[in-house]
């Protein structure tokens, strides 16, 4: 588990706690901030999952990962030099 996933999960939990406090105290700004923090935490956690998956694929299939990277580099190079 990467730092991104752990930090994302922590932000998600903190956001849900803020949201619950906002509901309890009837504080709309705290509730909204909690929702935003929770959503940001979920996005960060999903990013961490993608990074973990890419890392695992690279370890299992190094030649395949190299071929994908070369293909992406070729396509980006072709798009950037196109007029």
TrEMBL record:
Say if the entry is tagged with keyword Disulfide bond.
no
Q: What UniProt keywords apply to this chain's record, in alphabetical order? A: Membrane, Transmembrane, Transmembrane helix
Indicate yes or no for the key word Transmembrane: yes
Q: Superkingdom of the source?
A: Bacteria
Which residue range or ranges hold the CsbD-like domain? 5-55
Question: Cross-referenced InterPro entries, in alphabetical order?
Answer: CsbD (IPR008462), YjbJ_sf (IPR036629)
Q: What is this protein called?
A: CsbD family protein
Which stretches of sequence are listed as region Disordered?
1-28
To which protein family does this belong?
Belongs to the UPF0337 (CsbD) family.
Q: Where are the transmembrane segments?
A: 63-81
Q: What would be one Pfam family of this protein? A: CsbD
